[in-house]
Amino acid sequence: MQKTRVLFVCEHNSARSRMAEAFLNSLAGDRHMAESADFDIAPVNPLAAEVMAELGMDITAKESQKVFDLYKSGRIYEFVITVCDESLAEQCPVFPGIVRRCHWSFPDPWNLEGTEEEKLEQTRQIRDKIRETVEKWLADPDCCQLVKP
């Protein structure tokens, strides 16, 4: 059985897209192959890395990928899911083939305010919401919009 290829995209590939990739590969790696990419490379968010490590997941292990490099290389994905704000979702290229696109908006952990402990707790909430959204998507992947080339 061929795995469904899924690409998660956000602005920096430093937190949200990496978390979504890790959750999908962990929860359904037997059926799906998730990758993540960005528009503008940034280091992995340390709060995101910490809260994912609490669940035994390392999101620091791989290099960040640029979404347009993947596009130019001819990668094919059945689903492209943006996890950033609306303005960046609109910038995402339409990949070749018939692709379903989703947009899930989550706060950027880089923009959180408060003490370190407060930011850590807020990042846990983002993490948990991403996991919940991935689980809902797994139950109904047809919720995404179909985009033809």
UniProtKB/TrEMBL annotation:
A Pfam family it matches: LMWPc
BP terms from Gene Ontology: response to arsenic-containing substance
The UniProt record lists the keyword Membrane: no
Domain Phosphotyrosine protein phosphatase I: 4-140
Alphabetic keyword roster: Arsenical resistance
Magnesium among keywords: no
Superkingdom to which the source organism belongs: Bacteria
Database matches in PANTHER family: ARSENATE REDUCTASE
Descriptive protein name: Protein-tyrosine phosphatase, low molecular weight
